[in-house]
Amino acid sequence: MIQYRLEFAKQYLDDAVELFQKRRFNSSASRAYYASYQAMWAALGEPEDGKIWRHLAIIKQSIL
User: Fold this and answer.
1) Which end of the chain is less congested by CB atoms within 10 angstroms, N or C?
2) Burial per residue of 13-48, b for 16 or more beta-carbon CB atoms within 10 angstroms, e otherwise
3) Where are the domains of the chain?
4) What is the chain's pLDDT, residue by residue, as a tens digit (64 residues)?
């Protein structure tokens, strides 16, 4: 599952770069955000409750 998340992160990052080059900065920032979200999910692993990581939960986990 880690590889799956990292592949999504890479796709989102590629999209972010392409959008940035087209000067579509808001869309680029959105894709970059989701790239980091997927990468953090890969780093943290699956949540204990078997559901999905919510954005705030990832932030809290990364601070701990």
Assistant:
1) C
2) bebbeebeeeeeeeebeebbebbebbbbbbeeeeee
3) 2-63
4) 889 999 999 999 999 999 999 999 999 999 999 999 899 888 888 877 767 666 665 656 655 5
